[in-house]
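// run 5 | inverse folding | seed 20
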């Protein structure tokens, strides 16, 4: 299909309207801020983006909602690839991108998509900050963290992790606490609760099933540990998180 006629027409209209696209170096410097894990700069960038969101952006759809959704999907894809280049695991980056694009697809107003843009940018930036921190963490501790996440459903002990790494348990305990800023056992609990939060948010699995999957002895033990970590019961967390996402999807009242 020959697009020259339409291309020339659109270029003419842009000249007539004084439309100027965002300069590519400026756009990619913002992606670099995310890649570098500079959360504060990303937050400041988004404050500017929010105030000037439509400036320099082409029209991708006649529908205002689909227009911002298409821009969101493009930007999220670029950010995911930029973060992979910065050291984020490709499966993490692409899956996170998929999660946000699916959230965007559920938005019902352009304002909700714009809000989600800021959340997505800050999430990637915060994760990249952790990726950069992890580069200074020893191989033994990095592998132990991976081992913990692969075995969240078991009764994992320091002795088991140390044997997996071929280390003395006392040495691994000191090394892990120094580099992760918390004891081995506390990290396991935090990992389990963090995983539980995602399951509660993105599924309707019953609490008993979540508790069993994460290696808790009972639903009551899971609920008590969850409340100590988050200040809410699992049921309260699921309800409050669902309410927040509903508001984001609906956008602000006009």
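// decoded
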């Amino acid at each position: 299909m020959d697009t020259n006629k339409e291309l020339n027409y659109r270029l003419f209209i842009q000249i007539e309207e004084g439309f100027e696209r965002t300069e590519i170096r400026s756009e990619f410097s913002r992606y670099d801020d995310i890649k570098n894990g500079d959360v504060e700069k990303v937050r400041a960038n988004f404050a500017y983006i929010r105030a000037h969101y439509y400036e320099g952006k082409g029209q991708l759809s006649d529908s205002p909602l689909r227009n911002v959704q298409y821009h969101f999907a493009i930007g999220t894809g670029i950010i995911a690839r930029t973060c992979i280049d910065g050291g984020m695991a490709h499966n993490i980056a692409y899956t996170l991108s998929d999660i946000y694009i699916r959230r965007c697809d559920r938005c019902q107003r352009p304002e909700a998509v714009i809000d989600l843009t800021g959340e997505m940018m800050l999430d990637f930036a915060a994760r990249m900050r952790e990726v950069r921190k992890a580069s200074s963490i020893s191989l033994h501790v990095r592998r132990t963290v991976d081992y913990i996440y692969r075995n969240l459903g078991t009764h994992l002990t320091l002795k088991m992790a140390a044997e997996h790494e071929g280390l003395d348990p006392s040495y691994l305990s000191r090394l892990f606490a120094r580099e992760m800023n918390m004891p081995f056992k506390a990290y396991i609990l935090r990992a389990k609760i963090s995983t539980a939060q995602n399951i509660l948010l993105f599924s309707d699995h019953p609490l008993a099933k979540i508790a069993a999957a994460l290696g808790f002895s009972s639903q009551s033990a899971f609920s008590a540990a969850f409340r100590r970590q988050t200040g809410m019961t699992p049921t309260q967390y699921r309800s409050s998180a669902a309410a927040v996402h509903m508001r984001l999807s609906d956008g602000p009242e006009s």
